[in-house]
Amino acid sequence: MKAIYLSLLAAAGVMFAGAVQAADDAEALAKAKGCLNCHNADKKVVGPSYKDVAKKYTAKDEAMLVKHVMEGSKGVWGPVPMPPNKVTPDEASKLVKWILSMK
Question: 89-100 and 62-71 helices cross at what angle (nearest 10)?
């Protein structure tokens, strides 16, 4: 019984470490791609905070958000347009998943 408990605890630790690593990778990607020049996790800069985006959208909006990240958008959060970003679809998806996790 003790061995099963320890195995489950170890598995949970590995899963948690993987989630933390994914978040760190996404944040590093956001920094590298310049996203943090206009966005912040907690407060509006030029664009909305990531927490505000996460409050407004759900996982079902992911494809639309990926498109906005890649192609830009205007009129969604006010008069200032978001320019297109030089990211791959995979990078945009990683960024969107990270942003949506900030609820």
Answer: 120
